[in-house]
Design a protein that fits this description.
Blueprint: H1 3-11, E1 16-25, E2 32-37, E3 43-44, E4 47-49, H2 56-67, E5 71-73, E6 76-81, E7 87-89, E8 95-105, E9 107-109, E10 119-125, H3 136-146, E11 153-154
Parallel strand pairs: 1-8, 6-11
Antiparallel strand pairs: 1-4, 2-3, 2-10, 5-9, 6-8, 7-8
Length: 155
């Protein structure tokens, strides 16, 4: 059982603060990999929550291995995200305020898989094909990528 599941035993559905670590993955064509969530059918940045004693990079690598089935390398910081769009109420009524550390890379190994229960689909998109049905907390980093921002954003 993970850290968040243990917190939920004490806090129930009340708001807890988490740190999410996600990775913008570009392929050789310059397209962005997005993940379609199984809980709401929206597109998001692959990644997940930081566990105690993990570094941001370790969490991102672990989450991509678990959810996408690939090993990511050469992670560069893309942005740090906070604000009202980071307040999330999940379909099961859990509430989190999730700060995000977003990396970017073009280096990954392995076969992309949709086998994780949290995932419906993975797909690469061109900048002009980014879908409208984005998971609200991940919309800003995705749209920053779409706009061609490659500098570190702190917000």
């Amino acid at each position: 059982m993970g850290y968040i599941e243990n917190l939920r035993k004490s806090y129930g559905h009340d708001m807890i603060m988490t740190v999410g670590c996600g990775v913008l993955i570009e392929n050789e064509k310059g397209q962005l990999l997005l993940q379609k969530r199984s809980d709401n059918g929206q597109w998001c940045v692959p990644g997940g929550a930081l566990e105690p004693l993990e570094t941001y990079t370790q969490a991102a690598i672990r989450e991509l291995r678990e959810e996408v089935g690939i090993e990511v390398k050469d992670l560069k910081l893309f942005g740090l995200y906070s604000g009202d769009d980071r307040l999330i109420k999940y379909p099961n009524n859990d509430v989190v305020y999730s700060l995000s550390v977003i990396f970017i890379t073009r280096t990954y190994n392995g076969q992309i898989s949709d086998d994780d229960s949290e995932v419906l689909e993975h797909r690469f998109f061109n900048r002009d094909e980014i879908p409208n049905d984005l998971f609200a907390p991940d919309a800003r980093p995705i749209l920053d990528w779409k706009a061609g921002r490659m500098d570190v954003t702190v917000d």
